[in-house]
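Long-time lurker. I teach an intro course on protein structure, and each term I like to show students one example going from raw sequence to a predicted 3D structure in token notation. This year I'd like something fresh instead of my usual example. Would anyone be willing to generate the tokens for the chain below so I can use it in lecture? Attribution to the forum is fine with me.
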Amino acid sequence: MDIDTVKDAGMIPATMDLFEEYGIKASFFVTTGVDETYRNFRHYTPWRFISGNNLKRYGLCLFSGLLTKKEVQKSKEINMILEQGHELGLHGYSHYDWMNHLDDISKEELSCRISKGCELFEKAFGFYPECFAVPGFKTNMNYLEILDDFGFRYSSDFMGVKPFYPSLKNVISKTLQIPVSLAIGEYEDEEAIRRLKEQISGGYAVFYFHPSNEPIFRKDLMDKALSLVADRAVPLGELVL
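-- Reply from a regular --
Happy to contribute to a lecture. Here you go:
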């Protein structure tokens, strides 16, 4: 699951309670750098912001990066992930810029930003990240050409139905991709569970969500989904041979 914002980090305890209830260990990916969620505000009319889920989901935390320059990885709640035996990986550096300006960044600058993310992650948690997931499934050729340089055991950058190694100009990447098969929050409950059951029966199911959203506003969906995978769920790193 993705920790994109300070609000996501603050809601980790609720997710921990859910996972403890169902006996599940999972993979979390935390972004590094200042929470710049407030920059998304320009995409909303006041009515759209108030009538949608954004006000309930973020509240005043929407402006935490503007007011306090708080960095996501410094949120104390993230330590619960490691204390309770879950996997923690890197979700990039400067989530907003990655989502909105990836194609404007040179290969050299992109490499520097991933390195900066690794540095901030290691400073916060005391170890180099073993796994990675790009913000918003946003990739390009520059990214894929430098990914192997960082020595991640795996990365989770795509939607898909099975793990694979990308082929780049007839060269096979060394970094295993473990794709997400279901963005569970994008569907109504009945359809999300139908898709999850179908994927489980097919032998591969990886769904993701955000701590500040589905566990809070769609608790019934999470209970149904977690009950389906409780006896088989593992952190993604355990899929790497």
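Some talking points for your students: Strands lie at 2-3, 27-32, 87-93, 131-132, 154-155, 167-168, 171-172, 176-177, 182-183, 207-208. The first strand starts at residue 2 and ends at 3.
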